[in-house]
Write a structure and sequence with these properties.
The chain has 766 residues and is of the alpha+beta class. Strands 1, 8, 9, 10, 11, 13, 14, 15, 16 and 19 form a ten-stranded antiparallel β-sheet that branches. Strands 20-29-30-31-34-35 form a six-stranded antiparallel β-sheet. The longest helix is centred in the middle third of the chain and has 35 residues. It has 19 helices and 35 strands. Keywords: Glycosyltransferase, Transferase.
Length: 766
């Protein structure tokens, strides 16, 4: 019998360092940040990257594990629903002659932890010395991208020296107090949330082999298995734990058992192989290759790793929270981040995931209608913070750094969320041409959000319509009137509602009759929508070429932010809330967010004027801000500045900078990083008739290559700093590529090389 249970190669990380994130040693001050960076997830199941062994007692250092959609009200966070952690299924405790076997700077100076992004797993390698024992310990953990119910933990110990008594305990521990324990059977545990009644089942199959022979547990408790043996030099010990998790109603136990049976039949080597194949398929669609800037290459791989990890195209009833499944910040709530910062990635490289995210918004449309009606308007106003039902989940208050209790107004006043959702719907339609989605779900969202804005924009005696008492993306200023971002997005939303009505009438008249009857939409109401859109106040000053961020912004106190360079806290903490409110200091991109999303609203040199005006006024108090600044700067040709913003965005999660990531990675910023690269430096823009390219590679990037999907096609794109673009249509019907305002035919099997300085020598490469 072979002494090796799983091939040793599974513990060997990818060679290329730009595919890996490494941590050597153990720094307790940075352990929460490391746990976020090294988290593994698959859109259904996630677990943070804590160390492999606990110290001394069960549950002392639990790995926080999460299941998408497991929300309940706990009495915390103002009584709003929050994402509950489940039991830690990685708990392992070892004792060697009664001494705890742990990983910390004193006991394990050689400890190395690796996030292998190409393979989608976390590995560790360490030489432990405890008493007279010296052992090399390697670990592997993953949550399967092929079978999302499955998690796998492998530990291999090669005993180098010493004969010692060893005690190993594997437990399932640390379930959140919000979960009620219901049933424990051999290999199965059931919990139910206290209020929402969601059932969670976890089944486990732990096994230990010593020199290739299966060792039976000495004792088996309800939630733990224990083994004891004596080591010998040269001994090989392999611990395997397969877990399955099901979130369901009464059939959760059956679902978990079924998944575990599948996984056990495949075995650990088979599970690793299936998982690696699934990740290879994802990387074939989503990888970006950068030559000349290894830091940028690693940052984009880190971003794509977490973006690919966050989505589950098989579940249209969950979305992606602000920290994905990598941490608990914001209670797992869904914000505008999903449609504005994440959806561009999924539309371009994983349309099935994009569709599922938008179907979540369709399934929560009724909650958006209830919110609009409760506040006195028509149509649909989406929750600023959304959980499982789509009802508003923003907490009513927060505690300021000076311990003041502050009311949170975003849940009622940050209303641009409805236009943001509509923007995501339209972006998906343009990118995919998914008629079934538009007909059965997307059009209804567009119509109901447009109807909201028509009722929200109040007609004034001068004939203009104003949207009063809102909060824009710049959340430093509350209760403002005519926020440019909100108003122009509202106007855009209304026009898309009109266009959706026209599409239904012309292409699917039966569906239009059905839906218009259901919504009570009369032809005269649609006519009024156009008038409303045309008369919404925009705040544009044609003389200055500037949009006023909101009514009265230009009259506020200007603040020279360069005087506060190097600060470690946001500007509203430096200046205080009241002075910040009276100043022109901006929390995050607001007018510039509008420039990023609706560039056609900025004619002639208005884009440059607004960027020049608003950029120095932004304090970047949100992790979402620098990415949009980088995107806009790249489009405007300021590639040096754009590259600086790119690396600042990457540092949010990859550097131990001011932004705290202990509560999870900033998934919106990671999506924004991808946007800066693809929609900024590569100059990609989607249209109904073509994909457009206007590349502007930054200094140091000698080559950039990636794939995009558009309306059933897949295109490989390669940009060289020598001003050459190569396009290859790898799948789908012939299409049009628009390169620097010139339309070019792109056929399958006929790559195009396009010079970017005049386009005079476009040629087909056979």
């Amino acid at each position: 019998m072979s002494r090796v249970w799983v091939p040793e190669v599974v513990f060997t990380p990818t060679d290329d360092p730009t595919w890996r994130l490494s941590q050597v040693g153990y720094d307790p001050l940075r352990k929460s940040s490391q746990a976020s960076r090294f988290a593994v997830s698959n859109g259904f199941l996630g677990i943070r990257g804590e160390r492999s062994f606990t110290r001394g007692r069960r549950g002392a250092f639990p790995n926080a594990a999460y299941v998408a959609g497991l929300f309940d009200r706990t009495g915390e966070a103002g009584g709003v629903p929050v994402l509950l952690p489940i039991a830690d299924w990685l708990q392992v405790h070892l004792q060697i002659d009664g001494v705890g076997f742990v990983e910390d700077p004193a006991d394990a100076p050689s400890h190395r932890m690796e996030l292998d992004m190409r393979r989608g797993m976390v590995l560790s390698d360490c030489i432990h010395v405890v008493g007279g024992l010296r052992a090399r310990t390697r670990t592997l953990r993953l949550v399967s991208l092929r079978d999302r119910a499955i998690g796998l933990q492998l530990i291999r110990m090669d005993m180098l020296d010493g004969a010692q008594e060893v005690f190993l305990e594997a437990s399932l521990d640390g379930a959140h107090h919000g979960l009620v324990h219901r049933v424990t059977e051999p290999g199965l545990t059931l919990w139910r949330t206290r209020r929402s009644g969601i059932e969670i089942a976890i089944t486990t199959a732990p096994t230990l082999k010593i020199d290739g022979w299966t060792s039976a547990p000495r004792t088996i408790g309800p939630l733990r298995s224990v083994w004891a043996w004596k080591t010998q030099p040269g001994q090989v010990v392999e611990f395997q734990r397969i877990v399955s998790v099901a979130r369901a109603g009464d059939d959760a136990a059956a679902a978990a058992h079924s998944a575990l049976s599948r996984a056990v039949r495949r075995g650990p080597a088979g599970l690793v192989a299936d998982h690696e194949t699934a990740w290879s398929e994802r990387w074939a669609c989503s990888a970006i290759e950068i030559d000349g800037d290894p830091a940028a290459q690693r940052a984009l791989r880190f971003a794509a790793y977490h973006l690919n990890s966050a989505a589950n195209p098989s579940d249209a009833h969950v979305s992606i929270g602000a920290r994905g499944l990598t941490g608990s910040d914001y209670g797992g709530h869904v914000f505008w981040d999903t449609e504005i910062f994440l959806l561009p990635f999924y539309c371009a490289v994983w349309p099935e995931a994009a569709r599922a995210l938008l179907m979540y918004r369709f399934h929560t449309l009724e909650a958006a209608r209830r919110k609009a009606a409760r506040l006195g308007w028509r149509g649909a106003l989406y929750a600023w913070e959304s959980a499982d039902t789509g009802d508003e989940a923003a907490p009513p208050f927060s505690i300021a750094p000076d311990r003041q209790v502050l009311g949170i107004l975003t849940g009622t006043r940050e209303q641009h969320i409805s236009a943001d959702v509509a923007y995501g719907v339209w972006r998906y339609w343009i990118a995919t041409g998914d008629e079934g989605f538009l007909r059965e779900a997307g059009a209804e969202i567009l119509l109901e959000t447009a109807r909201f804005w028509v009722s929200r924009a109040v007609p004034e005696p001068d004939g203009r319509r104003q949207i009063r008492n809102v909060i824009g993306p710049d959340e430093y200023h509350e209760g403002i009137d005519d926020n440019a971002f909100t108003n122009l997005m509202a106007r855009w939303n209304i026009y898309r509602g009109i266009e959706a009505a026209s599409l239904l009438q012309s292409r699917w008249p039966r569906r239009w009759t059905e839906l218009s009857d259901q919504l009570g939409l009369e032809a005269g109401e649609i006519d009024q929508w156009r008038i409303a859109a045309e008369t919404i106040e925009t705040g544009f000053d044609p003389g200055a070429g500037l949009y006023e961020q909101f009514a009265g912004f230009f009259d506020l106190e200007p603040i020279d932010l360069s005087r506060y360079a190097g600060r470690s806290v946001p500007m509203d903490i430096v200046l205080g809330r009241e002075r910040t409110r009276r100043s022109q200091v901006i929390k995050q991109a607001d007018v510039l967010a509008l420039l990023a999303l609706l560039p056609d609203a900025f004619v002639e040199d208005a884009g440059k004027r607004n960027f020049s005006y608003y950029e120095p006024r932004c304090g970047h108090g949100s992790s979402l801000s620098t990415a949009l600044h980088g995107l806009v700067a790249a489009r405007l040709g300021e590639t040096d500045k754009a590259l600086d913003y790119f690396h600042r965005t990457a540092a949010i999660d990859l550097a131990d900078a001011a932004a705290a990531i202990g509560g999870g990675v900033h998934i919106g910023a990671l999506g924004g990083l991808w946007m800066t690269a693809i929609h900024g430096f590569a100059g990609v823009a989607y249209g109904e008739e073509a994909i457009s390219f206007a590349p502007r590679l930054p200094p140091g990037w000698t080559r950039m290559a990636f794939r995009l999907q558009w309306r059933g096609r897949q295109v490989r794109c390669e940009i060289e700093q020598t001003n050459r673009l190569t396009l290859v249509l790898e799948r789908g019907a012939s299409m049009t590529a628009r390169v620097e305002e010139r339309d070019l035919a792109l056929d399958t099997g006929c790559p195009l090389e396009v010079p970017l300085d005049g386009l005079s020598a476009v040629k087909s490469v056979n």
